[in-house]
Amino acid sequence: MATADEGAMAATGEHRVWRVYKEGVESAQATLPAEAPLAIEIDGRQVAVLMRTPGAEKELALGYCLSEGWIRSLHDVLLVHHCGSGGDADLNADPLGPGNRVRLALTPQAQACLPAAEATRWVFSGCGGVDAAALGAALQVSRRELRIAPETLWGLVATMAQVQAAYRASGGIHAAGLFDADGHPLAICEDVGRHNAADKAIGTALLQGKLAQAAILAATGRASSDIIAKAARASIPVVASFSSSTSLGIELAEAAGVTLIGYLRRNRFTVYTHPERLAARG
Fold first, then answer.
1. What is the mean pLDDT of the chain?
2. Phi, psi at residue 118, to the nearest 5°?
3. Same domain, residue pair 151 and 267
4. 19, 51, 249, 278: which has the fewest C-beta neighbours closer than 10 Å?
5. H helix or E strand, kind and range, residue 185
6. Looking at residue 175, which CATH number applies to its domain?
7. What digits encode the pLDDT tens for the residues 103-138?
8. At 120, is the secondary structure helix, strand, or coil?
9. Bridge partners of residue 270, in order along the sequence
10. Known active-site residue 127
11. Domain count, the chain
12. What is the per-residue pLDDT for 4?
């Protein structure tokens, strides 16, 4: 598979704001998370536009394609190219602007798995594009023998916090990380969209050949059904959210065999489904 280097775009930006106090009003510069569209083009066909935080564009595109079920591994990908990294004659003509498109070429076998041509799917930063109700029990995650120590899960909170540079700078931005069964980080990514953060982490691990080691997907945002679907399609058996889940998220996790954890903190968490994967505390 061929790749191309990414163009550099800022993940945060400065904006003038007015802070209002009881004592009066003051002008200030605030750091805000950036949000821009990213088109995903497969073999000349634009299949989706994601509203994302700039950065890790190839990883986001690969993770999105895998979590949608369009590819199963890097063996399905012949080329991934972030337009704007150099050598793009039509760069300035792109209606989404420079650096906001990733082009992929897939094998003929993978092309046959793509959905029928339809209007481009727009996925905004607050919502995903997965139809979880249609998945049902089709997404079955194995690794029933896996056991995760509670201490391992508690330790993820501090590990994630150490690398959330964009969150510390601006707030209002999500993070997602993939970890092995011992809590060692494989990929941790930030994005204004919680789904994009998960896709970036999955895509990063995929590109680095580490996805098979992933046992836990940890996320700062809520673990709704679409996040569960992403984990299941990547064969990740444990999802741990710093926030809550949803009724449909719990239903899908139960059916897919995913251990779902919510309200993860440094010393506690809530288990919604498949608690058998948690190692007993002596």
1. 86
2. -150, 180
3. yes
4. 19
5. strand 185-191
6. 3.40.140.10
7. 999 999 999 888 776 656 666 555 555 444 456 567
8. coil
9. 262
10. yes
11. 2
12. 46
